[in-house]
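#struct-help
A.M.: can someone run this one for me? Single chain, 292 residues.
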Amino acid sequence: MLSEWFVRIVGHDPVMQGLAGGVVIAAMNTLGAALVVVWRNPSERALDGALGFAAGVMLSASFTSLILPGIEIGGIRPVLVGFALGVVLLDRADQWVPHIHVVITGRGSRDSDEAGPDETRPDGDPHVETDTATGRERIDPDDARTASVLLFIVAITLHNMPEGLAVGVGFGSGNLGDALALMLAIGIQNIPEGLAVSVAAANAGFGSLFYATLAGVRAGLVEIPLAVFGAVAVGVAAPILPYAMGFAAGGMLFVISDEIVPETHARGHERVATLGTMVGVAVMLYLDVVLG
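D.P.: on it. C-alpha cells below:
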C-alpha cells in the first residue's frame, strides 16, 4: 500500500524518489526542531531529561542505523576506519569549536591588545582567556557551554549526512520496499534529534526560540542533497557508505560520552537524565525492529 501510494505521487524515477525521501526525513527533523516553539519554559530538569532521551536515541541509532548496517554493507574494516576518523575529527573539533561563535553569530572577538586576558567585552561577547598559572588557553563557563552545544550540533549534522546518503542509495538500488522502511525509520529517529538540537540551542541561551528552531532545521537540511546524490551515484556512494556510517557513529559516540552525558549530569538531575537515556535507547530499538 505504502509503495503504491509513494509511486503514485513521486513516480518511478529513482532520483525523484531519492529527492522525496530526503525531503521527508529532513521535514521530520524540522518537525522535531519546531517542537521547541511550544515548549517555551522548560525547566533544567526537563531539559536534562530530554537531552538524555535524545542521547539514548542517538546511542542506539549509532549501532542499529550506522555501525551494524555498515558492517553488513562493507565489512568491519571500513566501518572501523570511518569510526576512527570520526573520533579524531570530533576530538579536534573540540579544540576549534569554541571559536565558531564568530561564524555563527557574526560577532568577532576582540584583539588581545585591546584588553587584558581576564577582561570581558562590553557587549558580553565570549572570548578565550589565558590561564596565568599554566599558560594555556581556556574559555569561561558560558563559552564552554556554548562550545559544547555547537559541537553537539556539528555532530548531529555529521550524523545526518550518511543517513541522507543511505536513503538515496536505497532508492537508487531499486528496492522500493526496503528504501521506504529505511526512510521511515530515519525520519522518525530525526524527530527527537531535531528537538535535541533546538533544546540544546535554547538551553545555551542563543537568543531566541526562532534561532533554536533554525539550528535544528539546519542540521537536517544536509540530508536532501545527499539523498539525491546517493540515488544518482549509487555506484560511487555504495562503496563509501560503510566508511561514512562508521565516521558518523564515531563522532556521535564521542560527543555523547564527552559532552552530552557530563552536561546532563552537571546540575543534580542525574537520575532523570539516565532514565531519559534508557527510554531513548528502548524507543529507538523498538522503532528499528518495527520499521526495519
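A.M.: thanks! The radius of gyration is 20 Å.
D.P.: also worth noting: Strands lie at 128-130, 137-139.
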